[in-house]
Write a structure and sequence with these properties.
Elements lengths: L5 H14 L7 H8 L5 H12 L1 H6 L2 H8 L3 H10 L5 H19 L14 H19 L2 H13 L3 E5 L2 H14 L6 E4 L2 H9 L6 E5 L6 H12 L3 E6 L4 H5 L2 E4 L14 H19 L3 H16 L11
Parallel strand pairs: 1-2, 1-3, 3-4, 4-5
Length: about 325
């Protein structure tokens, strides 16, 4: 997706390679946190910067001073007052903040809606439908069956995911597969992941989940698992480092509607892939899977009152 930040990103990268090898501080937060301590003239500079960050990144010292109705030395004092070495250092950090946070600096209007519906509906339901459609277009049913065979034939299955959505999806994978009698466990701690991957054997399987496919820790544990000859599956973005590192990649590209307040839609796509794989595993392991499900349902129903048609253990 084109977010329109190419120029700022290039500028930030060009400036950053000259002096900084460590993470650049969030200068927008520094401006806001230091605002009360600034002099009145310096606050006018802060107001100009916060009102139009893109302008401040591209403008000269004189242009910022003119818009804030202050002198150029005041702009320099402002930069030092918020912890920067000078104007150039300030511009570097400001450009980096803009690259990371453009979607969070200004509201994005929801898509057009009919008069009788909330603007939330298209943002949420529309993105969910788009994600599911992307899975239908992208995933080869033969790959789902291959994945199911790998799960069904594995001595044990480890599922790894880092971050909010991937961690939740890893836990959901464990929740889906154990009901068929699969020996499965999910992990999201990087050190546990490395230790667990080191203990894998050729008849074991690792499933790695990553929305971007660039999470270094996840790619590293996949490489470690393959070193010990375990089989590997990824649910991730296409043409990513993770997709290229595994035996079988189940990939889907889900462009995101640029609304920072809306949860990512790719999790709908990944959850659909998990549903496809787990269902295929159930059919692959019949009748043993059906008997395990029966035992679980019997235990749940006898533990609490309910109907046989209710969700299994949820």
């Amino acid at each position: 997706m084109d977010t329109g930040i190419g120029a700022e990103e290039s500028k930030a990268n060009d400036l950053g390679t000259e002096r900084y090898s460590k993470p650049i501080p969030d200068i927008l937060s520094q401006i806001k946190d230091s605002y009360a301590e600034l002099r009145p003239a310096e606050r006018r500079v802060a107001d100009v910067v916060l009102a139009d960050v893109t302008f401040a990144v591209d403008a000269s010292n004189a242009e910022i001073a003119k818009r804030a109705d202050v002198s150029e030395p005041t702009v320099t004092r402002f930069c030092r007052g918020i912890g920067c070495d000078g104007v150039r250092d300030f511009k570097l950090k400001l450009a980096q903040s803009l690259v990371v946070g453009r979607l969070y600096l200004a509201p994005v209007s929801p898509r057009e809606q009919s008069e009788d519906s909330s603007p939330l509906w298209n943002v949420v339901f529309g993105e969910a439908r788009n994600a599911l459609s992307a899975v239908e277009r992208s995933i080869d049913p033969a790959d789902i069956l291959r994945a199911a065979n790998l799960v069904a034939e594995a001595h044990q299955v480890l599922v790894f995911g880092l971050g909010g959505s991937s961690t939740t999806l890893a836990q959901e994978t464990q929740n889906r597969l154990f009901r068929y009698g699969v020996v499965v466990s999910a992990h999201s701690d990087p050190y546990i992941m490395k230790m667990a991957a080191s203990a894998l054997k050729p008849n074991d399987l690792l499933i790695a989940i990553s929305g971007t496919g660039r999470t270094r820790e996840v790619v590293e544990v996949v490489e470690l698992a393959r070193h010990y000859r375990a089989k590997t599956i990824a649910i991730t973005a296409p043409d990513s480092d993770l997709a290229g590192a595994v035996d079988l990649a189940l990939t889907v590209d889900v462009p995101e509607f640029p609304d920072a307040l809306k949860p990512t839609a790719s999790r709908y796509a990944f959850l659909a892939i998990l549903d496809l794989v787990s269902t295929a595993v159930g059919y692959r392991l019949e009748p043993a899977a059906r008997e395990t499900l029966r035992r679980i349902k019997y235990t749940v129903v006898t533990h609490r009152k309910g109907k046989a048609s209710e969700p299994l253990g949820d």
